[in-house]
Amino acid sequence: MKPSQMERAQTAALIIIALAVVLFLLVQARFLLISLATAIILFSLTSDAINFIARQRIGPFRIPNVLASITALLLISAGMLTLTSIILSQINTVLTLSLTYAARLPHAVAAMFAWLGEDVQTSVFNTVSSIDVASYVSTAAGGAGNLMSATVLVILFVGFLFAERIWFSTKLVALAGNEEQAERVSRIIATIIHRVNYYLLVKTGVSAITGIMVWAVASFFQLDLAVALGILTFVLNYIPNIGSIVATVLVALVSFVEVGESGQTAAIFVIVAIIQFINGSVIDPMLMGRALRLSSFGIIINLAFWGAVWGVPGMFLSVPIMVAMMIIFSQIPELRSLAILLSREGLPEAEEAAAEPQRAAPRTLEHEAPKQQSQEEDTAA
Fold first, then answer.
1. Please, where are the H alpha helices in 221-288?
2. Would 265 disulfide with which of 60, 105, 256, 313, CB 3.0-4.6 Å?
3. What is the pLDDT of residues 35-51, one digit of tens each?
4. Structural domain range at position 333
């Protein structure tokens, strides 16, 4: 083998080993990494708001940056703990009612296949009856218990990010080596934050409206799990493409298990499907516009990968991660081909577009705080 071929083989082997190690670490440390990724997203959502508050004046006094950060952290903590408590209470309700309706489940599911013949119906009944619902409920309860631990860890991560935020610019210049390179990296980060924040705000609004409408439909038909179905729809709509489908099927299945009437189940299924279609396929794309520029096929592949690595939380984080990957790859010439594959129209983020959020945003206190603090220290000395 020639020396050049030997070097290529060694490089390929090292790349494969590095990817295997990274994948192993992603799987083994997924609880920590999922919490960290969630904390970074929450931090990016509130960072601009903190800068805006810190620039406001109350008479001759300006709101201190520390006070704005502490206020934001307290609001985030209260909001996350409240939301987690609501979700846990609904999970407990669902799990309790699941045991109540477990006896009806085999008959209800088997009835859905009655049109295929008695043999098929009997086979489906025997298959569903063999499922140990109690064990699945126990596993789900154990997983729900980790939700509060994850919430506390996310709050801690966000708190430390707030504490370190005034030094980000100084550290970025030191890491990049010069101010020009640091400015370029800062533009890329600003673009990622802008795109991810816009996606999350639009998705949250559309998902909230969809969840409220599903709750209204379930309440109209007097389903016991109306509130839980509304919250579940809101949460599942964050999963691109397949989340709305799963939520619609679950609403119909719960209706059929509770009531056992095919006519009412069909009516609920059609109404919820129309709601999901209008909100997810008409309103959502209209509000999103060209903000993401992501390939639909790339979203599915990314969804499958992060779902396999991090489970359901990975599905929720798949789109923000894909947005960050496409923007970063588009700024690196060697990886621009990957950005083209991830983009919807083969038009990934350009250098000029990446500079727009940075030019549009006013100068923040993050750039000025270290300098001001050093001047105060010199004066005190």
1. 226-236, 243-259, 262-277, 284-288
2. 256
3. 999 898 888 888 767 77
4. 27-373
Question: Which two structure tokens, joined as six digits, stand for 212?
Answer: 């409220």
**Cβ neighbours of residue 150 under 8 Å, at least 6 residues apart?**
31, 34, 35, 38
**CB–CB of 287/214 below 8 Å?**
no
Residue 20 lies in a domain: no
**216-226: average pLDDT:** 87
Residue 2 lies in a domain: no
Query: What's the total number of domains in the chain?
Result: 1
Q: Could you tell me if residue 3 is inside a domain?
A: no
- Convert the pLDDT of each residue in 21-79 to its tens digit: 988 988 888 888 999 998 988 888 887 677 777 677 777 777 777 777 788 888 888 98
Burial class (CB within 10 angstroms; exposed 0-12, middle 13-18, buried 19+) of 357: buried
Q: Say what percent of the chain tops pLDDT 90.
A: 6
Residue 64 lies in a domain: yes
Q: Residues 295, 293, 189, 155: is their CA dihedral positive or negative?
A: negative
Which amino acid is present at 179? E
Q: Which of 257, 330, 320 is nearest to 292 (CA)?
A: 320
The answer to whether residues 223 and 255 touch, using CB atoms and an 8 Å cutoff, is yes
CB 162 within 8 A of CB 362: no
What's the average model confidence in pLDDT over 187-209?
Answer: 87
Distance of CA 95 to the CA centre of its chain: 24
CA distance 103 to 80: 36
Question: Is the Cβ–Cβ distance between 357 and 225 less than 8 Å?
Answer: no
Give every CB contact of residue 345 below 8 A, 6+ residues apart in sequence: 293
pLDDT attached to residue 377: 41
